[in-house]
What does this fold into?
Amino acid sequence: MGAGPEPFDRDVELNEGYRYTTNAPLSSRLANERLTDATLELVSLAGRTLIDVGCGDGTYTSELARRGSPSEVVGIDPSPGAVAVAARRYPDLRFEVGDAAWLEATAERFDIAVARGVLHHADDPARLVHAIARVAHTVVVIEPNGWNPVLKLIERASSYHRAHGERSWRSSVIDGWLREAGFVPATRMYAGLVPFFFPAPAARLLKALEPVVESAGPLGRAALAVYAVRAARVES
It folds into this structure.
């Protein structure tokens, strides 16, 4: 089961944003920058409509809008507190309180959906992927890398990870959800070597090693932080 919006609302109350975005340590900034880079490596947003599913406090939504130049941006998230922060910080973008049910009901359609670190917080990830397929032709999914054994240990040992429902699946599980929803996985990558909330000196070292590990192919897969995949919907 996912953690639901409650722990994220508490983060917003205590920190006026999420811990890994607001007053974030160097390691979190480096880790998140790599995820934004990976998104833009997988898909071009220029001139296209975008929905950011699980937009949180809007930090990444804003980065995609600034760097990707989409024609329209909508961010949705089930946490009312996070959406309120996002709307206040980025008034030029549109944010809505929304989840799978919102996607299942809306008449809106988008060229691209980004689901960054959101499936593992959903009570029913397969349902959420189906809902995304209803509104978007192309999706980029970024999720914790279930092939990484260290990540599996952190998920069990870290109180933050337990409280926030952090978990990971192997790529085959995520690809299966995409196919069941009518998407065809097209481009895949494993990326990121810097953990969140890590000492700065070690984070700098891992960042320097990151390109080497990412270029190692299957040999480096188990050390990397996330699985990222771009998939397109099969048109009937």
Summary: The radius of gyration is 17 Å. The chain has a mean pLDDT of 89.
